[in-house]
Structures are given as C-alpha cells and as structure tokens.
Amino acid sequence: MVETHDFNAVNLDIPDGNPTGAVNVQTLISAIIQITDVEVRVQISGTQDAQPLAFNGDIYAYLTHGTGFSVLLNRTGRTVAASFGYPDNGFNITLDDAAPNGDVHLYRIVSTPAAGSPLLGVWAPDARATDPNLVLETDPRTAFLSTFNGLGASGGWTLFLADLSTGEQHRLTSWGLTLTGNIPEPGTTALLAAGGVFLVGARRRTRTS
Predict the structure, then answer these.
(1) Domain boundaries, the chain
(2) Around Cβ 18, how many Cβ atoms within 10 Å?
(3) Is the pLDDT of residue 99 over 90?
(4) 153 and which of 15, 32, 111, 114 could share a cystine (Cβ 3.0–4.6 Å)?
(5) Superfamily the domain 2-184 falls into
C-alpha cells in the first residue's frame, strides 16, 4: 500500500543563526502497520527580494517518528575546503534513499541551481548523524530513511529544522510524506474484530452471572 500525505502552507519561519530551530509535527492516522519505504518532500524558501541570498549550507534538518531518526539535510556543501557550504537559495526537493541523483550533501557535483533559485530534484538524504557545526563530506552516512522501516505509520512525525549561521532567514513552506508498507490481512482484521466481540460478550456474561 502507498499513502501520500501533503502538509501544505506550513509557512514556518526558521530562526536565523539559532540552533534551537523550529519544529513541525504532523499526526497521521494510517492503515500501514509496517513501513517498507519512506520518501520526504521538503520545500524551504530562501530570500525572495533582498540580498544577500540565504545559504543552503546553513540548514540542518532531521525527521523523527517512533524510534526512527533520519538526517535529511546537514549543512549541504560543507567540506574541508568550504566550511560555509553551498550558497544557494532554498530547496524544493524529494528525499529518497534510492534517489538516482545521490547524496544531497554534495548536490553541486550533479546540479547547480541558477542564481537565486532553489535546488530541485530527487536526492538521497544527507544521513550524516554528525554535529552540524562539525559535519564534513567525509563523515559516515548512517541515518537514512530506512530507519523507519518496520514501524507503523500512525502517530506523530516530527520535522526539525535549524539555521546555524547568521545572514538571511529561511522558511519551511511545505513538506510531505509518501509511505509504502504493509496493511493487516483481511482475515486478520476479521479475527481481531470477532475476538473483540467475543471479549465484550464474555465481560457482559460475567457481570450478569
């Protein structure tokens, strides 16, 4: 089963140069009892009409749900040779572990946005579970979206974002999830329902006996 959840018009400001960051929580009611794949859509706007432009390399973002934790963005473009990261102006991307474009941390190897424009396309998450003040391209990638596999989809999904260098402000415009997974077998659902009826009947007979 595949479910698509879109969280539009979030319009959440990300405090500039503040590690406290901003949080958006979305609570799902889902038929999926065991996740097998997760894709995340993220739209983060940068500066629209002023200079200097916002830096994509400022942004740190992660997603949590249940015991799952995935690092979506971790100071993109920050390397040994470039400590401020990429100077591009926002994101309008999908993140997928199997994305053909590869690691979003080094997206300019594949694609450089036009001046003042956001990054577009489908990318693999940064996945570097490293202090964003220290992260480099050489750090191991361990916090993929597959961390959610096996979990049920219902409940709270928390997106955290922080802008870790002063300059211009970013805003989370919208985000969303595409969840693939297993749902209960029809026979299992019927048995569970029947079991519930039996238990209620048993309780009633106990009370009247």
Answers:
(1) 2-184
(2) 12
(3) yes
(4) 32
(5) Galactose-binding domain-like (2.60.120.260)
